[in-house]
Amino acid sequence: MKIQISNLYFSYPAGVEALRGISLTIKSGERVAIIGQNGAGKTTLVKHLNGLLQPTRGQVMIGDWDTAKYSVAKLASRVGYVFQNPDEQLFSKNVGAEVAFGPRNLGFSGEQLQALVNDALALTELSDKTETNPYDLSATWRKMVAIASIIAMDTNIVIFDEPTTGQDAISVARIANVIAELRKRGKTVITITHDIDFCAENFERVIAMLQGQILLDGQANDVLGQAETLATTYVEPPQLTRLGKRLGFKQTVRNQEEFLAALQKK
Amino acid sequence: MAIVNLQNVTYQYPLTDTPALQNINLQVNEGEFVAVIGPNGAGKSTLCYTLAGFVPHFFKGELTGVVEVVGVESHNSSLSEWVLNVGLAFQNPFNQISGAKYTVFEELAFGLENIGIPREEMKTRVEEAMELTGIGDLADRSPYSLSGGQQQRVALASILVMQPKVLVLDEPTSQMDPIGTREVFGVIRKMTERGMTVILAEHKVEWIAQFADRVVALYEGQILTAGKPREVLTSDLVIDKGFGVSRYTSVARKARKQGLWSGSKQLPVTLDEAIEGFGK
Fold this sequence. Notes:
The structure holds 2 protein chains of 2 kinds. Chain A is an alpha/beta fold. Helix content of chain A is about 35%, strand content about 20%. In chain A, the strands form 2 sheets. A 6-stranded mixed beta sheet of chain A has the order 6-7-8-3-9-10. A 4-stranded antiparallel beta sheet of chain A has the order 2-1-4-5, with no helix packed on it. In chain A, β7 (about 155-160), α6 and β8 form a beta-alpha-beta unit. Chain A is globular. Chain B has a 6-stranded mixed beta sheet with strand order 6-7-8-3-9-10, sandwiched between helices. In chain B, strands 2-1-4-5 form a 4-stranded antiparallel beta sheet, covered by helices on one side. Chain B is built from 12 helices and 10 strands. Chain B is an alpha/beta fold. In chain B, α4 packs across α5.
């Protein structure tokens, strides 16, 4: 399902112009990371994809649906959105009920509903916690519950807002695993992140934003290698990209395999 | 002379079966910058709460051992006295913003109003904290209209204005952009040079290695190991237990297996250490 954003402008009621002319196409099944400094408009942009915000000017199309003409409830069948802070999202008495809430609202029931819930719980390694109250879990696991409750809705498009914030190494690996599996299933995955190393290791396309506009958009290696331009939006290239550059590698490297291959050639 | 002194500290939250902290011994000197690392659930936040007096004064539960800051024992103090010496920035900035103020400027003055600082000094301190944390342009915005990273800067500034002797920070940059993170680490370092003592719970090992004096590795409520950043952050003990490591460390470890990193050389944590090791 294609996402088409045309000449999008958005101003908050207080007058802050958060988006200033965004045009963007995201094809079905792409894995896209959105990076950029705090206040660049990343969250404002993705909140337009499920109708939480409506354009002040311009248009957002999700497949053949214009978001201005569909309710948030309706758009939820196409776009799942995992909030930055899981506590803004969780309210049920136990994990199983929490994860079932979304797909039930989309009209799933019976065995089909149970299958979606079980699959989402398995993918997020929560199968042994279905009876637990989400608020008795650590922040790490609450994040996984938030992710599971969106995955269970089986939407074509899944958005993660800062999924790795405050997560330890094991949990970050778990989230990377979820993203890889969604990719295998042909889902479009859009992730906002400040974790540039995580971005480099898990996404093929990177969009850098600056003050409500798109600064860079392209293949991860092309975007993440542009240290000077990225610095204008308070982003540094990934650790291994910086190291490769300082060691005089000719091409941009962004992960361990690329780094070691380039090191061997040297 | 240690400004923070924890001896045999064990703490259990109410209604739980196991202690969140077990037998913690930690002495921190005035002006020292100590980073606390550990997987989620290791007890980092609980340690922060203990230093900040929330454990046990707010959370109740059972605290045994000695918690002493600036020569005062936690049991013998009230929270309102304790906070004059120790400031805490929460992991989640939403939890910290007072909800009582309409602008960032007023928010920063809130703590000072409560302890009766004269108006002119309040203004000076607020302006200085805004400049340090790079939020001068947000002075008139509502604290709730800000992005996560901007709110974290406000949360940090609202503690800095109080000029605590000991600054406790629980993942203060988790929602910040990368260069913003590095800047904030620089600000923290600067505070220690002015004599402030800093204890920081954090996952971002590259910056810990560059800025902290000492690293304490916490695991399942206990101190696993502690020492100089490079030693702790590259030790097998820490890596194998699933603590975060920098990409420089993990790639050098792989390179070592392929003979591309000399076995006699200590693994790197920072960019400079990696350049030094790979470059020759």
